[in-house]
Design a protein that fits this description.
Layout lengths: L2 H10 L3 H7 L4 H14 L3 E5 L3 H13 L4 E2 L5 E4 L13 E5 L11 E3 H12 L7 E9 L8 E7 L2 H10 L1 E2 L1 H7 L6 E6 L16 E5 L4 E5 L4 H4 L1 H17 L2 E3 L2 E6 L5 E7 L6 H5 L5 E4 L3 E6 L2 E6 L3 E5 L9 H7 L5 E4 L2 E3 L2 E3 L10 E4 L2 E4 L18 E5 L16 E9 L9 E3 L3 H9 L3 E3 L11 E3 L12 H13 L6 E5 L17 H12 L5 E4 L2 E4 L1 H12 L5 H8 L1 E2 H18 L5 H21 L2 E2 L1 H5 L5
Parallel strand pairs: 1-6, 3-19, 4-5, 4-10, 7-9, 9-11, 14-25, 25-29
Antiparallel strand pairs: 2-3, 6-7, 6-8, 10-11, 12-16, 13-14, 13-15, 16-17, 17-25, 18-24, 19-24, 20-21, 22-23, 26-29, 27-28, 30-31, 32-33
Helix pairs in contact: 1-3, 4-6, 12-13, 12-18, 14-15, 17-18
The structure holds sulfopyruvate and manganese (II) ion (MN).
Amino acid sequence: MEERDQKVLEARVRGDNFDKLMSVPNPALHRFIADAIDLCAPDAVFVCTDAPEDIEYIRQQAIACGEETPLEAPGHTFHFDGPHDLGRDREKTKYLVPAEDPLSKALNQVERDAGLREVRGLLKGSMKGRTMIVRFFSLGPTNSVFSIPCVQCTDSFYVAHSEDLLYRAGYEEFRRRGERSDFFRMLHSAGRLDQRMVSIDVDKKRIYIDYTRDTIYSVNTQYAGNTVGLKKLALRLAIRKADREGWLAEHMFLLGARGPNGRKTYLAGAFPSACGKTSTAMLPGETILGDDIAYLRNLDGQCRAVNAEFGIFGIIQDVTPQDDPIIHKVLVSPGEVIFSNVLVKDGKPYWLGMGRELPTEGMNSFGPWHKGKTDETGNPIPPAAKNARYALCLDTLENVDAELESPLGVPLEGIMYGGRDHRTSVPLWQSFDWEHGIVTCGASLETVTTYATVGEEGIPEINLMSIQDFVSIPLGKYIQNNLDFGKKLTRPPLVFGVNYFLSDRDGHFLNDRCDKAVWVKWMELRIHGEVEAIRAPTGYIPKYEDLRRLFRQVLDKEYTPQEYVAQFTMRVPENLRKLDRVEKFHRSEVPGAPAEVFEIIEAQRERLRAVRDEFGDYVAPFDLQKGQAP
Ligand code: SPV
Ligand code: MN
């Protein structure tokens, strides 16, 4: 360790906290912590190891300091973020980019030196009067080719506690790895807090990613998506690392789908935030491995995947015992759960769409709330935030997959992409091959903005592979990496598209929320070549008789030919218009987009035109099926 770091740590880290730091013999780690102390000037430093008593201390302090409050059910607490801090803040999240090496202009960035000065200026002295917590984690299972060790310094016990639920402990992992300096570093301060323990200076909120040093800075915010460094902030660093090392870090859930005779097939799914990702990951009857971030590697030609995380930070809106029975059970049973930005009344949490009437008064992220209360602009304040969430460990779910901690991950055989698309794509299809899927499902994913990010909702946009907010390398390079990854696999995962939001002319959804359980079964069978399909211009679509059988089997539901035709009719004009938007996006926003993108788009256009010439603008699946070999 350098002498200056030794001096800082000796002077500022007291008692056994100092010994805990010293027993990780890593000068790069000591450098980062000494710098954080120097900059933020905390009164005390608490070093949290993997020991249960250290973790218990964090839990207790989150309550003692008022960032969390116990609810009636044992183990449950709630936390409020401020009214202007209820989602990921795209505008305030920027890459620190060296002047000589800028990123695609679609990615929010600031020149590195100027950005560093700004964010470090805001962090200066920010922890005076407070304790800095130092925590160690591993993204991915420990002791594995997938593991990425991370250190988090924060002055928020809520953030430290959330991370305890969402990630794997990593103090021992750091000790095992000795002097290696290839770990992620995260520094967060909630900044000045009011008496409700809510960040005051949200106008000075900054979330800056210094990928040249694998370091993240976050200040004047508490919302977990902006502060829990291991979540989307680390995903941005992981994408850079994956780019260097030839693997993929993705915004994907992982689930084990059950097939005939007890077979299990692993599928991943990429959906933009608030588009059905967690509820797909948690389908009753299947097993869940993860709901948000997956790492994919080519191990001896096979695609293997792990969950980077160990818990779920899930949207609670619309969670009901009928639609989400597994998670609902955990949310009403004793056990460790942090509820954020719900409505609280008499020690109980309430959320929008919970399937019962809400109280007419209580506490929420705006303070004391009553029905009819308005905000400073005169708009009614909803009882709970749309983006209210729960944080809990995956192993509290009854259908958690047994391979969650497997150091070699699970074999991944299918990937699905889906966004909020009301007018264009059929509810389910399979791409012709890997490249077709990456381009026409992933890189063409259209959606509308949701409450998961701060700002206006319902704005249409393309969101590459549902991960565009987090891509930290040139977008064209990111697409190329995806294309190359599949080319090198012996048998790349099949790529599927899903659209849960397809609507009729009057804006009514054409599917029920639970239909996705059937789609997953169809994918499982396709992967094993056990079900046929119809060749449509945009990919393979299911046959009616297979869906009818699966609807009966899975949902005990009679699926009519009318429903099938309404859902699976190829909307040619809409699809052609979509291709135009996608092409325009890639030409204008994705410098260096691979030539393959444009070739595949053009071929899809040709197929759509050919079908239109034969059948007209709207082509029923039965018409497509005619004349095709079975
Ligand atoms: C998302 O918004 O995609 C989330 C929640 O998973 S967070 O990124 O943590 O805000
Ligand atoms: Mn997410």
